[in-house]
Design goal:
This protein is α/β, with parallel strands linked by helices. It is built from 32 helices and 22 strands.
Amino acid sequence: MCDLRERLAHSRSKSGREDLVRDHLLAVARRASAYAEAFGAADEGYMAGLLHDLGKYGDLFQLRLQGKERGIDHWSLGSWIALERYRLYGVAAALAIQGHHVGLQQLSDEALAALYPPRLLETLPQQLRLSEVAPERLMEHFADDGLSLAQSLDSSVYEGPDARTAASMLDVRMLFSALVDADFIETEAHFQARGPQSKCCRAPGPELNPERALSAVLSHADELARRPGASPQITKLRADLLEACLAAASWPQGLFTLTAPTGSGKTLSMLAFALKHAVQHNLHRVVVVIPYLSIIEQTVGVYRAALRAAIGSQDPTSYVLEDHSLAGTRRPPRGATGEADGADEAADPSRLLAENWDAPVVVTTSVQFLESLFANRPAACRKLHRMARSVVLFDEVQTLPSDLAVLTLATLSRLSERYSTSVVFGTATQPAFTHLDEAVRRYCHTGWRPREIAPPALALFSRARRTKVDWPSGMDITVTLGEIAGRLVDCPQALCIVNLKRHALSLFAELQALEADGLYHLSTSMCPAHRHKVLDEVRRRLEAKEPCRLVSTQCVEAGVDVDFPIVYRAWGPIEAIAQAAGRCNRNGLQDLSVVHVFVPESDGRRLYPDGSYQQAADIASLLMQELGPEDMDIHSPELFDRYYRELYDLRDLANVDTDLAQAIRNMHFAEVARLYRVIRTDSINVLVPYCPEAFRGLDEQAMATGLNRDWIGRARPYTVGLFRPRQDDPIRDYLDPVLVGRARAPADDWFIYRRDDYDDDTGLTPRESMDCLIA
């Protein structure tokens, strides 16, 4: 068999460089240790790095690199050594090592006992063989290579069998993250080597430099305040909120809420808080979590403009990283065995598409952030360790799915408690999550007791009162969309928001029949480039006082900066009505403007996107009946506190007895990852022919190169999200999967639309099937 000095961790790079097992183990150990040092687990990170590829010393793995064997497990015996040597102190590392190819599995006595080599040989999947059956033989190679393990560890990531909670699962994931990110980067460096003697490690991301960044943001805020476009009262309110955020930034790290009205400048004020907080506590990163892809680019644009002076000559995309869920957090293993050796580790497209958040400011989606917190796959988890010593800003936090609230809050509370991460929940309609504190304590002992940043003395909501709501006189007083169209025609500038895409299409058609001038439609059936074009034209018309009627779904409500003199809103949850009001008289340039709330006439079909949305709308109806229109004050935080409490009680959120909760109590990482869904229905990305020239170019590129990161970046502006169609849905006949990888296999979540169903006004409207359109 080959000499010990020739035992390789990977196949040779294209430049001819060899990567010896010893060198790879040491490199990953050092990097994982440095990553884990941020949360006090440097020793465990180092040990996990040393053992993660221990099986590569085995003869069968060396034959695997020569193409003479396949299906070789080179990770399980390293996992067993960690467990055998360090017992309880080695549990987290054992799970991380076991999972660095196949994903985190389960922390249970039975699952750990299955790592015992004789049992492992009995239970190993049929298509796998151990690279070496005797762990002591691997440890002899390890020692002969000059490597050794510490006799003991000073810390333990896993706190023992009494700590089988969401908090404990996060602890294991954080160590796992440090290991897999170190392994990714060192493997990437080997395969990108420019010569046989040296690796080519990627340069680290830029530093946050929070003092300089804060100075840039404050200068930008001063410049905005001097521009015309907002009333003096709104300008003063925004300045007061900014000052409150700067004052609160000196507080100790922890959990915070920022409850402030729409149009009060939360986006910049939260960033200023985060940067000054980073100065105060020596933090390294700001992570901004946005609920919808439809507004993420707007937020990124605001931040890059605000930070321009701090970014300087650096690439703005590397300083403010825009990371979406488009690459997916749930990609399946490569093959049944999860085995990936040699060049495949660096060339596999799912890995190349993964981000590790090595940037000072990261703007991401709720799906990407939250599902990564509960993931078990290496590509999804590799970014987690970057959250340590950070500030996480949640914008429009009312969009967090309530059925996931308790377990999500517990995990975020642990992130704050153990990893020196401050978490801010910002919104105009703050959910009453403190009502769930006792339930949260079952999964993280610190519970949920955030501190409010905006002091009551500022009276932000009463000062920001720019609208009044014209409530329906009764829930039985319904109107047709045709009647609403007639009212909109009489308004030179008006926004109407409905709950469903079919209602938006019907209302738009009614207005077309009435030959309404300046008529526009907005929904997520339109690709981002199309929506941006519409919004730019809408803003231009509003500013120029030209006719402008916009029919939209809820996609306009969360964070979209438009300012209409009058708004119509179909009945829905109270927070949705309040968010709609935030698009009315936003800059306070008029006296009180009116938000007309109406109850659409039933057509015998559903009136709301889903059951949860209908529940929330029903609670709003009950409050309306109980309080009456005069006391339904959307500017009152007390109303929202009551509304959310009643909603949580209706859904019995405090009684967490779900399959997901059971999977957490069983510490079953794979099952938790499967069950934790921010968006319940599976969705796909579809390239649509909005811009024929761009469509042709992307179609040709996809045929030539397949799915890659560059293609996704170019395709994103012309992409529409759809619910995954049923097998018998006619739309499947017009969806061509984009090919991916060397095998040119069809992608599971990227498709090209092959029929001319894209309308210049309303976006993708499949003739035979509307069920797959996301509401």
